Structures are given as C-alpha cells and as structure tokens.
C-alpha cells in the first residue's frame, strides 16, 4: 500500500504532483477519492465511479477558502478530509492512458497553492478495496478552522463569495449530492437545516429530507 508522500516545508505544488506521479508509477489506472464537490462537479474524465468508504478520515466543513468560495477580505469555507472517524464518498477510476491529461486538470483545481496533503487512501467498495488518491487537510494547517459557532458560520454563508460562487451554494450543492447518493453525514445535514431555518436555502424535497436526518 502506498503511504503518505513526503512534504517539503515550502508547499511546492508542482513537486507534489511529480511525487504523486512517481508513486502512481504509470502501470495501472488511477483512482481518486471524492468526498465533496468532486462528487457533483468532478471536471475530469473517469471510466468508472463507485461509492466508497474511507476509515480514519472524515468530511469537515472546516477549511478556509480565500479564492474559490471566498475572498481575502471575506474568506469562505469548503469541505476538507480531516483525520478521525470515517467518510463515505465516491471513487473515480481514470484510465491509465488518460492520466497524463486528466491528473494535471485535477491538480490545478485541488492543489493550485499546495494546501492539501495528498495521500493514498484505502477505500472500501462493494467490489473490493482500492487505493485512491485523496486530498486531506492537516489540523496544523493555517487553513484549518476547527469547529465554528453557528453565528460565525451564518455570517460566512451570507457574505462569502469567490470565483466559483458562494460558500452557501457550495454547501447546499454538496449536501444535496451527498443525500442523493445516500452518503450524507449528520453534520452536513445539520448545516443545511441551519441555513434552511434562516431562510437561506430552498425548501425543496431534498432539504426537507436532510432536515429530518439532522434531527434523528
């Protein structure tokens, strides 16, 4: 099993990409683990995808976003994969012949500033275990927020916007996609219920189902 790649003190995204390429080796298809927006907006070509579970990591809405879903003046939030617990998500298989084209596209999206720690994750699927590339966040990262209070969370959801849209739209789209794939976690359901009570999210069927999940 491939382990964690060695990091340099300076987050050199290009060097990290090269390390992942070397670890992958080019002899097989490449699996990627998606736990948030990759599920509903992957932006790379995959020949297969499967629901998967990763243990030892969980999905957390606890990462600052100063470009994609916020700004330097008003940082937003995005999901990250943080140590502890478990996470249900999706694994995507990129054909070996397509990795040279698709991996740089994925890297530009996820790693333009090297904020994540790329890891090879043991992903359990109905068809067996696969080793997939995942993007994790250290609790020591300056971008890790820890758990925020609801008042601060609501302020961010009301005001944070970035080049890909608002933090609110990102949260709602992710929570609804997770629900549709039957992999929503309780905290995502709670957050959607919170914004729904504040009138920030539409009262559609998915939102109502997630509010029910949050209250179970």
Characterization of this structure:
Helix content is 35%, strand content 30%. Mean pLDDT is 90; it is low at 1-9. The protein has a five-stranded mixed barrel with strand order 1-3-2-4-5, surrounded by four helices. A two-stranded antiparallel ribbon has the order 6-7. It is built from seven helices and seven strands. It starts with 12 loop residues before the first helix and ends with a helix. By secondary structure, the protein is an alpha+beta fold.
Please identify the oligomeric state: single chain
Major beta sheet, specifics? 5 strands, mixed, barrel
Order of helices and strands: HEHEEHEEHEEHHH
Globally, the shape reads globular
List low-pLDDT spans: 1-9
């Amino acid at each position: 099993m491939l382990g964690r790649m060695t990091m340099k003190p300076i987050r050199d995204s290009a060097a990290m990409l090269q390390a992942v390429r070397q670890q992958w080796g080019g002899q097989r298809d490449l699996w990627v683990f998606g736990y948030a927006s990759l599920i509903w907006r992957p932006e790379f070509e995959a020949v297969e995808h499967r629901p998967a579970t990763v243990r030892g990591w969980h999905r957390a809405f606890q990462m600052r976003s100063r470009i994609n879903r916020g700004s330097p003046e008003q940082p937003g939030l995005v999901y990250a994969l943080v140590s502890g617990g478990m996470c249900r998500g999706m694994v995507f298989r990129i054909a070996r012949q397509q990795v040279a084209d698709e991996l740089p596209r994925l890297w530009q999206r996820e790693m333009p500033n090297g904020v994540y720690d790329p890891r090879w994750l043991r992903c359990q699927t109905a068809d067996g275990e696969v080793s997939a590339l995942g993007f994790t966040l250290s609790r020591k990262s300056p971008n890790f927020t820890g758990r925020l209070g609801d008042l601060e969370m609501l302020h961010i959801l009301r005001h944070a916007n970035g080049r890909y849209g608002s933090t609110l739209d990102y949260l709602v789209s992710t929570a609804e996609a997770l629900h549709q794939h039957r992999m929503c976690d309780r905290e995502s359901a709670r957050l959607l219920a919170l914004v729904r009570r504040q009138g920030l999210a539409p009262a559609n069927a998915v939102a109502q189902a997630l509010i029910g999940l949050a209250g179970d």
